[in-house]
Amino acid sequence: MSQISPSGRVQPKIRKPKFPLEQIAKEKGFGKNIPFFTAFLSSLSVLFPEGERFFIRSVKFFQNQVPDETLRNEIKAFAGQEAVHGNVHDKMNERFVEIGLDFRSHEKMFCWLFFDILEKNILKLFPVWGRRLALSITAAAEHFTATLGRFLLSLPESRVAWIDPISWNVIEWHALEELEHKAVAYDVYQTSGGGYFTRILGMTIAVQLLGLLAIVGTIRALFYFGFPNPKQIVRDIRFFFGSPGFAWAVIFYILEYYIPGFHPNKQDDHALIEKFSKIVVYSA
């Protein structure tokens, strides 16, 4: 169970789940009743392993500049959680390849955009500022994944009944931990002296690149899962733009990030963290 301090901060907990990913079949995937969201989640899974490792590198580079012991402990837990996320999604992506959803070329494009261009070349040109920009992109991406996690964990059971139980268990676990460590990268960014301009630049870059990759990946996954029929399209639209709707949640919280004085912990997720830290199953 997650530890919540008297100040309201959450100490992330490193878990080592064992999911029967070998049981995921094409007919199940992330569920077929909402093909667009199924395709979207599948495309994100491909980006997670290398993305998580980028986040770890970005945050740990600044850990020696953090005087607060509580935050240093959170950095260690953050790195541990993200490392496990990467390993689990590596295995999930391997299963996708086995059942015919081969995203390896998509992963290469992601690595080229984020690492070859952003991480390597910008660091060569701006060694100091480049590190802070990488951290700001990490903080922005963590805000996005926390927003996605909050949306999914807040849905009533009837609205997630279409998801394969194994895949949903992975989603619950990952979403819970994203909420636990949602403020770590942001706090490290602020502690290291990061300012407003680089913070919003990081979000702008993250939105553009992740949006591009998500769109391309979703289209590719739709060819695998099958394009929806008119009835499914209506259901997709309701899921994305209904109430609660995924699109509104993402747009609102991304725009909120641009407000001066924003902080991830202003959104109270303690109830969700308490609930899912008790009910999520971590082993097969």
Automatic annotation (TrEMBL):
Residue ranges crossing the lipid bilayer per the database entry: 205-227, 239-259
Keywords: Hydrolase, Membrane, Transmembrane, Transmembrane helix
GO molecular function terms noted in the UniProt entry: hydrolase activity
UniProt keyword annotation of Phosphoprotein present: no
Domain of life (superkingdom): Bacteria
Pfam family, one: Metal_hydrol
Record has Transmembrane helix as a keyword: yes
PANTHER family given in the database record: METAL-DEPENDENT HYDROLASE (PTHR39456:SF1)
Protein name per its UniProtKB record: Metal-dependent hydrolase
Organism from which the protein derives: Leptospira sarikeiensis
